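# step 3/5: fold
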Amino acid sequence: MKVSAVRIMLSTVAALAVTSFAYGAAESSDSDVKVLNTENFKEWTEAQDLALIEFYAPWCGHCKNLAPEYEKAATALKEDNIALAKLDCTEAQALCEEMEIPGFPTLKISKKGDFATYNGTRKEAGIISYMRKQLLPPLSTLTSDNFAKFTASDRVVVVGFVEDTESAEYAELESLAKELRDDYVFGVITDKELAAEQGIAEAGVVVYKTFDDGKD
């Protein structure tokens, strides 16, 4: 299993994922996006295990384009206990300066008040996928019990089949998973019976997809 080969495969799969995507959910009439201000910002963000905050300005065209996608993502992520919120920087200028907001919209991930840059897309599916990845470890251990659910959990799921967790292949996969965790969901299997069920006889990587031919 060569990391360079996996990278090439993932870049091809990513291109196909973009071209095959279709939006389906309708915008909800009731907002599931929490409205923040200078009074509730600190208390609310520190209370959330995982949240996404949009820093915006009402006059911003890109913010207006993001709004319906953000609303739909907020509704979908409720079941994962991931909260989405927004802060109007024209009404909270000092706070946005403190947060070093460079422009609008800016999205930041918050975990108990610790902030990190959001590097995903500004579409519903991209927001959902990116935020759900934040709940997972870089590399998840798979068994026969969670295999089916895990491989269907995102549009592109990378699964490595290795001899054991002490192998060189495992170390390579773990390194790649840590580097690309924001882009892909990674799992690993050391169970030989489960590997055999998937037609895998030696160490390697399979990319499971919800489009095209299903896997590579």
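# step 4/5: annotate
Helices lie at 3-19, 41-47, 61-77, 93-98, 124-133, 147-151, 168-180, 192-197.
# step 5/5: archive (pending)
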